């Protein structure tokens, strides 16, 4: 009898174990319409905020997308990026990898609207994810259905940012390796780099390809244009001098980026390496030829990135102000 009970108990544990593991997997705890009962208007409030800010400050849409990349690549999608330097916490925004990032103040605009509707309910991490989703639409990109339920980190990871976020001068193999560690394959990584379609590069990150001699992988006519945008080999880092990756459709998230890369008009070394590396070239060629394929792969990769190791359940907290951890 005891053996029979033990057998039934073992079978029960065997059957329930997958459910237990799923419940404790941060990725699977995210769900669609997470705020359906606790804050039914949450996603609409974020969407309206993104649209209003876009109509006033168009570049905010690009900022939302970059926020998602920088937040999710460092540890997890937990809004650690938004924490400001205070009380011994050094902000990830102070890292060299965050150079040129801005519009963080408008995250507060959206969060304040959420706090007025549903106090201490919607996480800053979900604001980062959903504002990126809605920003992508404003940039002419695909509509991506995202799960929610992320919670906010209580700490910043400033010391680890440089090692976790790829540099524009990194080799394509190291960038692929970094994203693979996050669960994003080669095809997805090539698609994510397509976000450079709406990006711009400050001259300080570009002049090494122009001076003292022009990088031979750059199209000569394009190099002349870039020299016009960046006329000195030693630009002031604070000066608003920059060049766009895509001059034809600079505020539309499309496959022109890949066409430019194939024509030796990639701004950064990492852009040009996409076309010179045999691992990535076939995807570049396919995305250059088919905008629908690019957008499908971009959607898939953004979802993979947005679900990277989120804090869920009783982990972390829901910050009242995205800039600071809650005071106990």
Helix amount = 40-55%
CATH topology of the largest domain: Peroxidase, domain 2
Strand content: under 5%
* CATH top level label of the largest domain: Mainly Alpha
What is the fourth-level CATH superfamily of the largest domain? Peroxidase, domain 2
The residue ranges in which pLDDT falls below 50 over 5 or more consecutive positions are: 9-28
Q: Report the mean per-residue pLDDT as an integer.
A: 89
Instruction: From the alpha carbons, calculate the radius of gyration and give it in angstroms.
Output: 22 Å
The domain count comes to 2
Q: Can you name the CATH architecture of the largest domain?
A: Orthogonal Bundle
**How many beta-strand segments?**
2
Tell me about the largest β-sheet. 2 strands, antiparallel
**What is the H-and-E element order?**
HHHHHHHHHEHEHHHH
TL;DR of this structure?
The chain has 328 residues and is mostly helical.
Question: What is the topological layout?
Answer:
Elements (H helix, E strand, L loop, with lengths): L1 H22 L2 H4 L12 H15 L3 H14 L31 H13 L6 H15 L19 H7 L7 H9 L5 H7 L7 E3 L17 H10 L12 E3 L11 H7 L6 H8 L4 H9 L1 H16 L22
Helix pairs in contact: 3-5, 3-6, 4-6, 9-14, 11-13, 13-14
């Amino acid at each position: 009898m005891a053996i029979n009970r033990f057998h039934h108990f073992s079978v029960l544990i065997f059957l329930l174990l997958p459910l237990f593991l799923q419940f404790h997997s941060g990725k699977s705890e995210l769900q669609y319409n997470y705020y359906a009962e606790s804050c039914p208007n949450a996603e609409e409030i974020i969407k309206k905020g993104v649209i209003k800010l876009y109509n006033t400050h168009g570049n905010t849409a690009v900022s939302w997308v970059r926020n998602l990349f920088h937040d999710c690549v460092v540890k997890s999608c937990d809004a650690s990026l938004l924490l400001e330097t205070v009380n011994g916490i050094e902000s990830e925004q102070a890292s060299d990898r965050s150079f040129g990032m801005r519009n963080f103040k408008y995250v507060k605009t959206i969060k304040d609207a959420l706090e007025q509707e549903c106090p201490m309910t919607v996480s800053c991490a979900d604001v980062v994810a959903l504002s990126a989703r809605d920003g992508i639409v404003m940039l002419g990109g695909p509509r991506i259905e995202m799960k929610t339920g992320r919670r906010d980190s209580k700490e910043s990871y400033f010391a680890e940012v440089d090692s976790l976020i790829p540099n524009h001068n990194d080799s394509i193999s190291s960038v692929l390796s970094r994203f693979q560690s996050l669960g994003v394959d080669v095809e997805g990584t090539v698609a994510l780099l397509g976000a450079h379609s709406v990006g711009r590069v400050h001259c300080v990150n570009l002049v090494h390809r122009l001076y003292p001699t022009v990088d031979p992988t750059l199209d000569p006519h394009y190099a002349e244009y870039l020299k016009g945008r960046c006329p000195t080999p030693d630009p002031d880092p604070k000066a608003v001098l920059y060049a766009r990756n895509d001059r034809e459709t600079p505020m539309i998230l499309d496959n022109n980026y890949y066409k430019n890369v194939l024509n030796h008009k990639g701004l950064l070394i990492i852009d040009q390496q996409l076309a010179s590396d045999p691992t990535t070239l076939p995807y570049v060629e396919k995305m250059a030829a088919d905008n629908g394929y690019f957008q499908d792969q971009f959607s898939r990769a953004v979802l993979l990135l947005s679900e990277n190791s989120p804090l869920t359940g009783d982990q972390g907290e829901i910050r009242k102000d995205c800039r600071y951890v809650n005071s106990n």
